[in-house]
């Protein structure tokens, strides 16, 4: 379990994280979203014990990260942003180094090393200096390091940043595989990642939590947009509000080119199927019909821009 | 202890997987040998001792040790590995001590490799081996002092070049603290007590008294105190600058 209570970090004049209260239970994968500079990394650094909070507290599996730093660190695996590792070392000696620091020894160390090497397919590059590895392998070495002591809680700062689509898929599959037994927080600005691995999404902007939603099951894609549009509407100007209100009534949006329409569905209904049926009924010619998933992108933009406007 | 041991091993290993160790050892030994014979007039002195050899150590250390120490923290910060290291189950103090000890062990190894000089004087004559042993000890302590300064300076910046230049200047000033170059800068305005205090900080004076074969407590305290002070400052600087 990972908890923060009124967590705050101030740097001189800037408040990077502002009164953040979160609670992530075992089995949950929290997607931590936000534009660059929103305070995602700073929050994670505080939970990981790298930065001291200016106010508030954070706990990992019940261990306060300041008062019981050793306990909190033992319970946590942390992948810092960019997966830093000692470039001159080979993955094998790097992992042995981390295992030593983690207090793993003898047969247990051997077993854990074998397990993470197998899990992350590091076999072929074990004796190659980390500095010469591809981005994908570097990231995997970072993940191996975080998973080495089989921690109950994991914090992964942009685990798939800079990876190619295959590598992204692999990392996500790995997170999905280990998720049921662990408490995981991942930060990302790739929205599809939230949909593919997270059970819950928290959006942070200017250091404040602006949305925190469970995304499970069929409602996954839709739960966020509804709330998102609500927020955007409040932030918008009068005319935009009226237009949006009208559109919401009809549930249809006309694109600026005048040739395409977007039909907004409601939870549990197959929108594409209904559009097709409707077109057939009226004898319309449809050049292309495309079903869009949850429009998390729009929500993300609306929420984070909206809060920036209110802040300004 | 576990944490210090693990970091110590990694750090010491890091010197040898990169060319750093070999370049440093070759330059160190070549300079030691060449300077002793050419500038120290090793043969012409006609004395079976290592006075000329040890007299060079402070000057060689002043620029070789900062070169060795510059990477200690600047590299960690530049590569971002400091975030990895300091979120593992280690305290900042443990990491600082482990890194310092690894670098110190490495300089001690370099020093030990000058043993052929010792054999040479024993082959040529009958030197006072007690004085030579004391000089080696003093030299190792002095290297530790320079290293602590270098490690501290390395934590101030993420640029290794800046760390080297600052480290060199600081070591040089402490080395020259007993000479008119530094003392005159104070003598013109500061009271005599301050000038004496600055002179007492000189590396040279303390090293000289050790290498005369006089093992005095105050010289040992001076070097150990200096190391402790700069390592303490090192920890404070890392804690302070982590957020940047």
Describe the structure.
The complex is a heterodimer of chains A (312) and B (244). With 312 residues, chain A is α/β, with parallel strands linked by helices. Helix content of chain A is 42%, strand content 22%. Chain A has helices spanning 40-48, 69-75, 91-101, 106-119, 135-147, 165-178, 191-197, 220-235, 238-250, 271-282, 296-311; strands at residues 2-11, 14-24, 29-33, 55-60, 63-64, 76-79, 153-157, 183-188, 200-205, 208-214, 252-254, 261-263. In chain A, the strands form three sheets. A six-stranded mixed beta sheet of chain A has the order 6-7-8-3-9-10, sandwiched between helices. Chain A has a four-stranded antiparallel beta sheet with strand order 2-1-4-5, with helices on one face. Chain A is globular and about 75 Å long. The two termini of chain A are 35 Å apart. Mean pLDDT of chain A is 80; it is low at 216-236 and 308-312. Chain B is 80% helix and 0% strand. In chain B, α3 (51-69) packs across α12 (203-211), α6 runs antiparallel to α8 (129-156) and α8 (129-156) crosses α9 (160-175). The two termini of chain B are 29 Å apart.
Features:
A: 312 residues; alpha/beta; 4-stranded antiparallel beta sheet; 11 helices; B: 244 residues; mainly alpha
């Amino acid at each position: 379990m990972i908890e923060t209570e009124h967590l705050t970090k101030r740097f001189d004049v800037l408040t990077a994280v502002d009164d953040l209260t979160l609670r992530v239970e075992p089995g949950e994968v929290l997607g931590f979203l936000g534009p660059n500079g929103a305070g995602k990394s700073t929050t994670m650094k505080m939970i990981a014990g790298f930065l001291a909070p200016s106010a508030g507290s954070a706990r990992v599996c019940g261990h306060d990260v300041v008062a019981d730093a050793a306990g909190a660190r033992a319970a946590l695996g942390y992948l810092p942003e960019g997966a830093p590792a000692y470039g001159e070392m080979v993955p094998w000696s790097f992992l042995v180094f981390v295992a030593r620091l983690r207090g793993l020894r003898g047969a247990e160390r051997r077993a854990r090393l074998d397990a993470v090497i197998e899990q992350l397919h590091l076999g072929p590059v074990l004796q190659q200096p980390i500095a010469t590895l591809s981005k994908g392998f570097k990231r995997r070495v970072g993940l191996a390091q975080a998973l080495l002591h089989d921690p109950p809680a994991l914090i992964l700062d942009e685990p798939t940043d800079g990876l190619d689509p295959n590598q992204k898929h692999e990392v996500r599959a790995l997170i999905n595989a280990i998720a049921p037994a662990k408490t995981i927080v991942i930060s990302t600005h790739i929205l599809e990642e939230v949909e593919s691995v997270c059970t819950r999404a928290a959006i942070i902007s200017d250091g404040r939590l602006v949305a925190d939603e469970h995304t499970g099951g069929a409602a996954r894609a839709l739960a966020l947009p509804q709330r998102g549009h609500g927020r955007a509407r409040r932030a918008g100007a009068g005319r935009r509000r009226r237009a949006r209100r009208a559109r919401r009534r009809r549930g249809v949006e006309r694109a600026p080119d005048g040739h395409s329409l977007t039909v907004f569905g409601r939870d549990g209904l197959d929108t594409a199927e209904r559009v097709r049926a409707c077109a057939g009924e009226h004898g319309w010619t449809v050049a292309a019909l495309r079903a869009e998933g949850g429009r998390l992108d729009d929500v993300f933009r609306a929420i984070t821009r909206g809060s920036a406007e209110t802040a300004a | 202890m576990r944490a210090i041991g693990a970091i110590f091993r990694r750090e010491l290993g890091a010197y040898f997987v990169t060319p750093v160790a070999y370049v440093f050892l070759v330059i160190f030994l070549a300079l030691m040998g060449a300077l002793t014979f050419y500038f120290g007039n090793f043969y012409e002195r006609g004395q079976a001792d290592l006075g000329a050899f040890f007299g060079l150590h402070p000057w060689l250390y002043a620029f070789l040790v900062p070169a060795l120490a510059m990477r200690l923290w600047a590299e960690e910060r530049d590569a971002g590995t400091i975030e990895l290291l300091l979120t593992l189950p280690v305290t900042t103090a443990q990491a600082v001590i482990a890194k310092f000890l690894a670098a110190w062990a490495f300089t001690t190894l370099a020093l030990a490799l000058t043993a052929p000089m010792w054999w040479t004087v024993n082959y040529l004559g009958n030197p006072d081996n007690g004085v030579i042993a004391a000089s080696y000890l003093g030299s190792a302590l002095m290297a530790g002092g320079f290293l602590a300064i270098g490690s501290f300076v390395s934590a101030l910046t993420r640029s290794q070049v800046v760390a080297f230049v600052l480290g060199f200047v600081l070591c040089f000033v402490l080395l020259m603290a007993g000479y008119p170059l530094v003392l005159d800068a104070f003598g013109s305005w500061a009271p005599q007590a301050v000038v004496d205090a600055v002179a007492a900080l000189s590396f040279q004076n303390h090293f000289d008294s050790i290498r005369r074969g006089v093992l005095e407590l105050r010289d040992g305290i001076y070097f150990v105190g200096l190391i402790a002070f700069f390592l303490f400052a090192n920890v404070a600087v890392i804690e302070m600058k982590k957020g940047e």
